[in-house]
UniProtKB/TrEMBL annotation:
Pfam families xrefs: CarboxypepD_reg, OMP_b-brl_3
Top-rank taxon: Bacteria
Domain Outer membrane protein beta-barrel: 385-787
A GO cellular-component term linked to this record: cell outer membrane
Gene3D superfamilies membership: Carboxypeptidase-like, regulatory domain, TonB-dependent receptor, beta-barrel domain, TonB-dependent receptor, plug domain
Keyword tags: Cell outer membrane, Membrane, Receptor
Protein name: TonB-dependent receptor
PANTHER family: PLUG DOMAIN-CONTAINING PROTEIN (PTHR40980), TONB-DEPENDENT RECEPTOR-LIKE BETA-BARREL DOMAIN-CONTAINING PROTEIN (PTHR40980:SF4)
Cellular localisation: Cell outer membrane
Length: 813
């Protein structure tokens, strides 16, 4: 920590010069109060201070729960401010003169005028575009989109620019996997498979926006080599008692539906909020695998499998914010889920000396059951330290996860004529798992001057996972323990981190330098074989951001970051899971973390059109691979460290207003990916290919409250590690109608209109010959109804962020 403190001082000295260590300059205080239309304090109103001589922006602040705001400045001159908030007219103050650096200016109180008071004379329509480009991220506005209605979060992500989700629910951004998923700014601490389950169980009605951050600052956890996707859930922004209710029905080949309730009660001192969502889904999946196992002679396998998955999900959130005074707020938050489901599968594998000749076959039936429960507690505190906006916040988190997967398998080996080769084999697995997560973090930010801002913070997390594979086989009419597969794996991890960011604003240039330091201690213990893997290491993650305004319509940006991705918990778990004798999955407890250096240059024109080009290099890249098991003539999936991955990418985002009633957003992402491994299961691997993704979102405004959307996506062929993926594409459509004076909405949506979305892939691994076709239930029609009720005075609720986002992104739901 002493080293970290010294580095912070050096960075501070570079930005602040002599004044950082010298005497403090005298500063004047400018204050005021904002009231709503009922002459009550209006909190979280945006207040912008301007210099009267040239109308340049000096500072920005928010009002506190008493409606008060304040600025601290040192320059003499004349000033005015503008106050704005959703649902109100922008208020412009009178001009006051500051003649002395120690003077105090009080603008007094100002009353906002509600837009709703003038609805008889004017119609106000504020519609956010589906895609917005901001300085450090791309934002997709989900809440008002008809095409997102009734979808789950995983399906919504597929529509985000530069984001891809394959049939196995692997999420990639700009062609690269390793995305860190956050919920409301919090890391999820789950495995990639568990994050996919969580997102599949979250409904679009819960989501406000999705933020795509390709190069995060040092304030964020250093995880995520391809960036961060932050899913922001809805928070009721109205004062008094209010809420909303929604319900969705959907059908493709099977029924699905969900319903939810959101409630909020807000007074001057207390804000109570909560929501509950229930979902029920049923979906089918088809997979075919044709492959050749090398030998003397070669053996040919033709595998066809179908599965039907049924799932019921219950998600909830409840919390309280207590406003101690105008500067201090304390809050508690509880959220979680309890989900359960089944998946029945039938797999038929035909075996022979060629694809035309059959020697034998294997028919495998399986039934899997799952139960996942998670509850997380958060205690948070926030204090505003001065009128310049300096603040300190703290979070303490505890999360407990329990899961139980059960599987029953029946394997029937047959000759070509249908006679049994051997008696039917029965095996079963029971895999209870537990994950405990503890974390705390403290964040501090301060304005050292009108042009220099300092951010700093610390965080520690402790994660313990316990997975117990209880495998049994049916022998002599009795279930007996299968000692070859039964095992227990316990994994402990502690990560301690500290960061600092220094931001300096010049006339046309903004520079931010940051450093994050993380110390990791981990221990994996395979109990049955007493195999222990321990690691302890320190890492430094610098970041640099430069924004240059060339003119009113032209801006340049440059960013650099170093990042880490630790193996997910399920990837480290060495258990073996069989689809059948010839297809299985196993973990790798010897995985190392991967490190990525990212560099990106961006250009923005007219605040709308943006081009970015980037380069990244990842060492020891963690990737899912399909490899041959020559002894068993099987194909297995695992995770491995490849030597390196190099990526070049270019992203172009072009919004177009075709007509007053028709707008579109077009996104083109072109990238080159290469992977190298000198020795992957005894074979050298080297792949590289240029690919692209194109997504277009069309929005249409129709008379009488009707809006419509049409979205399309195309992804060209792609080589990723040992996989060679074919092109993928789909088209979605949606229609929305506002009802009951805009208190309700009715939405219709049809995803994958032409039923084209599917996965087709082959091997990029030398000497391995297979072809996989995978088709999920993707063409689904949905109808959704939402009704909003209660008081309509607009008062934003306090923004919340806990400290366990990163760790929960690595577990099962």
């Amino acid at each position: 920590m002493k080293t970290f403190y010294k580095i912070s001082l050096i960075i501070l000295a570079i930005f602040t010069g002599k004044d950082a260590f010298g005497q403090t300059q005298p500063k004047a205080n400018i204050t005021g109060t904002i009231l709503d239309e009922n002459k009550k304090p209006a909190d979280y109103v945006t207040v912008v201070l301007f210099k009267a001589s040239d109308s340049s922006v000096v500072k920005t602040a928010f009002t506190d729960p008493t409606g008060a705001f304040g600025f601290t400045i040192s320059a003499k001159g004349e000033y005015f401010y503008k106050a704005s908030n959703m649902g109100y007219k922008t208020f412009k103050s009178k001009i006051l003169s500051l003649t002395d650096a120690s003077q105090k200016l009080d603008f007094g109180s100002a009353q906002l005028i509600s837009i709703t008071q003038n609805l008889k004379e004017v119609t106000v329509a504020v519609t956010k575009p589906l895609i917005e480009r901001k300085m450090d991220k791309v934002v997709m506005n989900v809440s008002n989109s008809a095409i997102m209605t009734g979808s789950n979060a995983l399906e919504v992500l597929q529509k985000a620019p530069g984001v891809s989700v394959d049939q196995n629910d692997n999420i990639s951004m700009q062609g690269k996997q390793g995305v860190l998923i956050q919920l409301d700014g919090k890391q999820t601490y789950m495995s990639s498979a568990d994050v996919a389950n969580l997102l599949r169980n979250m409904q679009s009605s819960e989501i406000e926006t999705i933020e795509l951050i390709t190069n995060p600052s040092s304030k964020y956890d250093a995880s995520g080599n391809s960036g961060i996707i932050n899913i922001k859930t809805k928070k009721n922004k109205n004062g008094g008692t209010n809420g909303s209710a929604n319900a969705t029905l959907g059908y493709g080949k099977n029924f699905r539906g969900n319903a939810g309730l959101n409630l909020n009660h807000r007074t001057q001192k207390v804000n109570l909020f909560g929501n509950y969502n229930y979902g029920k889904t049923e979906r089918e999946n088809l997979i075919t695998i044709d492959r050749i196992s090398n030998g003397t002679p070669d053996t040919y396998f033709m595998q066809t499998g179908t599965s039907r998955r049924k799932q019921q999900n219950n998600n909830f959130k409840a919390g309280l914010d207590y406003f101690i005074d105008k500067k201090n707020t304390i809050g508690v938050l509880v959220n979680g889920y309890f989900n359960h489901g089944t998946e029945a599968s039938v797999n038929n594998t035909i075996i022979g000396p060629s694809f035309q000749k059959v020697d034998s076959s294997l028919v495998s039936n399986s039934l899997q059951t799952n139960k996942y429960n998670n509850i997380a507690y958060n205690l948070n505190y926030k204090s505003i330290l001065d009128t310049a906006g300096s603040e300190i916040s703290a979070d303490v988190d505890y999360s407990k996860y329990n899961g139980n997967d059960g599987s029953d398998y029946e394997n029937d080996y047959l000759f070509a004529n249908g006679n049994r080769i051997r008696p039917i084999s029965y095996i079963r697995n029971n895999t209870p798992s537990k994950i405990d997560i503890k974390a705390f973090k403290i964040d501090y930010n301060v304005s050292l001057s009108k042009s220099i801002k300092l951010e700093a913070g610390v965080k520690s997390s402790w994660v313990k996972t316990d997975n117990d594979l209880q495998a049994e086989e049916f022998v002599n009419n009795n279930w007996q323990n299968d000692v070859r597969r039964s095992n227990q794996f316990i994994y402990d991890e502690n990560v301690n981190a500290a960061y600092t960011n220094i931001n300096k604003q010049f006339k046309n240039t903004s520079i931010q330098v940051g450093l994050r330091v993380e110390q990791t201690n981990s221990k994996g213990n395979l109990i049955t074989t007493n195999t222990v893997v321990e690691r302890s290491y320190w890492d430094f993650f610098p970041t640099l951001f430069v924004q240059q305004t060339l003119s009113k319509n032209n801006q340049l940006g440059l960013s650099y970051s170093r990042r880490i991705d630790r193996p997910s918990y399920d990837a480290l778990n060495p258990f073996i899971y069989y689809l059948d004798q010839y297809t299985y999955n196993k973990g790798n407890p010897f995985l190392n973390p991967q490190y990525t250096n990212n560099l990106e240059l961006s250009y923005t024109f007219k605040q709308k059109y943006m081009l970015s080009v980037g380069y990244s290099r990842t060492n020891d890249v963690i990737i899912e691979v399909l490899l041959p098991d020559e002894a068993q003539k099987a194909l297995y999936q695992t995770n491995a460290n490849l030597a390196k991955n190099i990526s070049y990418n270019a992203n172009l985002n072009i919004p177009v207003q075709v007509a007053k009633w028709w707008s579109m957003n077009n996104n083109l992402n072109v990238f080159y990916l290469s992977f190298e491994a000198p020795n992957l299961a005894g074979t050298a691997l080297k792949t590289g290919k240029t690919s692209f993704q194109f997504k277009s979102q069309q929005s249409f405004t129709i008379a009488n409250g009707f809006t419509a959307e049409l979205n399309g996506s195309y992804e060209s062929p792609l080589d990723y590690g040992t996989l060679s993926l074919k092109a993928r594409y789909y088209i979605d459509a949606g229609l929305s109608k506002s009802l009951f004076n805009k208190k309700a909405s009715l939405k219709l949506a049809l995803s994958d209109i032409f039923n084209m979305s599917e996965n087709n892939l082959s091997s990029a691994y030398p000497g391995l010959n297979y072809y996989v076709h995978q088709k999920n239930e993707s063409r689904i029609g949905r109808i959704s109804f939402t009704y909003r009720f209660g008081k309509n005075e607009i008062k934003p609720a306090r923004r919340r962020s806990t400290g366990t986002e990163s760790e929960q992104g690595r577990m099962k739901n």
